[in-house]
Amino acid sequence: MMCVHFEEATVLSRGVRWAAGTMAAVCMLLLLGPGAPSRGAPPAGPPPFVPDRVATWNICNPCGSGNNFGRATEIAAYAPQVVGLQEACVRDVEQIRAYLEEAYGLVYRVEYGTVLRNWNRCGGLPWRPGGFGQAILSAAPMTDRVSVEYPDGGSEDRGYLAVTTLVGGRPVRVFNTHLAERRQAPVRARQVKVLAAEVARHDRAIVLGDFNALPHAGELGPMWALATDTDSGCHPPTVGRVPDAGPDVCATTTDWNSKFDYVFLRGITPRTHHVRPSPYSDHHLVHTDLNGP
């Protein structure tokens, strides 16, 4: 059986993407061999988290793959200290966490920012549908959880989730958000004002999420005024930017070659920035390593 490396693939049809991801997961198990951890038997030793690494990923719902082991494999490949997930069903996240622990020895805590309950998206019984929204996975304990639904979600309820946790051994406020759909800029502008007002209260903050807006979009102005994106090629329109360059100076984070996904830092500087296409979502997994104190 030939194992193929799919990380750099950027354009795959949905069916081919799903097959590619499944193959990658199977290959991972084959490479681990007979000594691979089984259910209930995580590998010995400390969890191999990267202590200064944070990530954001819109895992796409509905995308039709439902491959939570594949999603866990993607996260485990980079082992961030903190991961913000968008379009996340509670049941899916619970499965992803279980696979991360049992197959890879990565024991994450979780907090949810459920904004709606939807049977079509998240399954469950019609009278008890699954929760849908944001989730934050953290290797360290999380405190002071706040989940806020924006007053106007646009065509679908949207909000942000915030917690305090440790990244690189230092406390930081972490936000995870998903803004209104791409054609709803006025709605996003109102949502960003709500989010930015809360971010501004903290000297050290990490803001993860799918903003559904290109870097030069006017509605992102309040965020650019407070924080810096970890992609060194991305700036607000008036800072270090050729006026007609558009979004091309930024690494794209979606299958349709747009940058919608951000890791904004306030009071912290980035060391690296990486965007990794995935067969399990139409958004890429974005992760960054932060500079220490």
Explain what you see.
The protein is α+β, with helices and mostly antiparallel strands and 293 residues long. The chain has 6 helices and 14 strands. The protein has helices spanning 14-32, 68-78, 90-104, 119-122, 185-199, 221-226; strands at 50-58, 80-89, 109-117, 124-125, 128-129, 131-138, 143-149, 159-167, 170-178, 205-210, 228-229, 261-266, 270-276, 285-290. Mean pLDDT is 84; it is low at 1-22, 24-41 and 242-247.
Gist?
The protein has 293 residues and is of the alpha+beta class. The chain is built from 6 helices and 14 strands.
Short descriptors:
293 residues, alpha+beta, 6-stranded mixed sheet
- What is the terminal separation in angstroms? 46 Å
Order of helices and strands: HEHEHEHEEEEEEHEHEEEE
> Could you give a short account of the major beta sheet?
6 strands, mixed
Unreliable stretches covering 5 or more consecutive residues? 1-22, 24-41, 242-247
Q: What value does the Rg take, in angstroms?
A: 18 Å
The largest sheet has its strands arranged as 3-6-2-1-14-13
- The number of helical elements comes to 6
